[in-house]
């Protein structure tokens, strides 16, 4: 595996984070077009995810780099831009555990 250049890594991770930030800006823009009663409330949960998505995009780009994958700036930006869809797809694939039988719960 080739050595990882810290400057390139930092740049690609930042580009991926900016993709997540652009996603947030597009979401805010679209939300601003809605009537005020249909807008998403900007509560604490909203702002936590506002920070989370760029960080998650940056983290996923960092994982790609650590894995040795070739990552170019446009791909890094796309990773950040699509991180919410990527994580939702990954979570949807998780198979839930079946509930325990009644007999097992009583014991």
From TrEMBL:
Transmembrane segments: 7-26, 46-66, 73-91
Alphabetized UniProt keyword annotations: Membrane, Transmembrane, Transmembrane helix
Protein name: Holin
Source organism of the structure: Duganella margarita
